[in-house]
Amino acid sequence: MIYMDHAATSPVRKEVVEAIEPYFTEFYGNPSTIYKVGREAKKGLENARENVAKLIGAKADEIIFTSGGTESDNIAIKGIALKNKDKGNHIITSSIEHPAVLETCRYLEKNGFEVTYLPVYQEGIVRIDDLKEAITDKTILITVMHVNSEIGTIQPIAEIGKIAKEKNIKFHTDAVQSIGKIPVNVDKLNVDLLSISAHKIYGPKGVGALFVRKGTRLETVLHGGGQEKNLSSGTENVPGAVGLGKACELAGKELEKNMKYLAKLRDRLVEGITTNVDEAYVNGDTDKKVPGTTNLHFVGIEGEGLVLLLDGKNIAAATGSACSSKKLEASYVLKALGLDDVHCHGSLRLTLGSENTEEEVEYVIESIKEAVARLRSMSSIWNERESKMKDLEDKNRCKTCSLE
Amino acid sequence: MYTDKVMDHFQNPRNVGEIEDADGIGEVGNPTCGDMMTIYLKIEDNIIKDIKFKTFGCGAAIATSSMITEIALGKTVEEAYAISKNEVADALDGLPPIKMHCSNLAADALQAAIEDYRSKQ
Questions:
Q1: A323 catalytic per annotation
Q2: What is the DSSP letter of A371?
Q3: Same-domain pairing of A79 and A187
Q4: Which domains does chain B have, with CATH numbers?
Q5: ipTM here
Q6: B26 inside 8 A of chain A by CB
Q7: Exposed e or buried b for every residue in A272-311, given b needs 16+ CB within 10 A?
Q8: Which domain holds residue A337?
Q9: Where does the NIF system FeS cluster assembly NifU N-terminal domain lie (chain B) (predicted)?
Q10: pLDDT per residue over A151-166, tens digit each?
Q11: Residue B23 — pLDDT band, cuts 50, 70, 90?
Q12: Most buried of the four, A35, A197, A277, A345, by CB within 10 Å?
């Protein structure tokens, strides 16, 4: 199988599996206990914390382990909002955040907070001027993702952080899609809080971390036994944390090499597709992107069909088409770029990993070329796309649609 | 999510194409929703002698289009007009519930094609 959906999840590396295993079978103690098997577990946990901290230029005691990116985002955003609700009730975020951020913000909106969702324009990047304009004396939190999962664009985090610092506003970034892909340093990025997930960087699912800069006070939103500085209660997922630590260690060591390699593969992939397939366009900015990620749309076809045909050729890729989503809605990220529904339907996301090869890239280019041609030969709109697309200009939703 | 029959009709669709001198053409759907299909009919002595389709849409949309062409071929115009959405879905061993509404347009397209044929008589 050729796996090109690393933004969804990644395989767990052998070194990571090997590092984890003894924490299931040998050092299975509860790290809160004082006898040997508990102390061994605690040692593993703290060693992992060091590794996570090292990758992002933080101190170990600024890292708390969580169940993943979603929990980290919830703890950070609700924690800051609730802690500072007497100072203000305004939060600024972007329109293309992960649902873990967007839905948390919507929940807070229902509970008396006000949220500004910054636009991202065709390039898929927030503009600093919009941010400056959005800030009020009630703004208590800015949360903007480092890298977008669907289109791979890199947001100007360091600049946003600088402004937040000047205005004394807490700043959180969801770095789930940037960790291990580009350099991430909490001081250079000027962030107070930063979310991490293990399973996007060859670690296990169900574990992540939150960086909380020393002195940043959060209201507890997950109540319990007080583990992880009372921010993420529950007996620590020691094997998971050890896996995350190992994944971070490897990611740091191989970062530079992987960045070069993945950029080269991705550039060839994009070049191969856009020169071999008519009316194939890259979504979002083409330069300010993490290496290894691309998102394109193909006129006249629907993405779910494309993904299924590629699956038939043993290629795993993703689409932002409404037809493949649970809610039957086109990707809100692609829509935020100004793409209309019909172009969102024809989108394909390819996210490469270090185990992909040049041969695989060539095979994928050839397979996409065939699959798109096949779908277009069946498509009722491809031959008359110009006139049919014009019909769309009224942008009316399907009249029989009862799912609105 | 999709049954083997849906996957078979999606990967090996039957009767794809257009009929140049079609006796009836039916077009339904809206590309905004992601599904749009056209059905072409050749009718002789009140029997569907040839049927072809073209579809822009997901796996389910293509599979239902393909399936209805198999069901309708050789039927009388009245029999073909009576083919229901559920019949198409059942012939494919079912569709995911969320696809029943949006991608199961083939019966509508066939009825539209028959109406087009009748209007020309």
A1: yes
A2: H
A3: yes
A4: 4-110 (3.90.1010.10)
A5: 0.93
A6: no
A7: bbbeebeebeebbbeeebbbbbbbbbbbbbbbbbbbbbbe
A8: 255-383
A9: 1-121
A10: 999 999 999 999 999 9
A11: very high
A12: A345
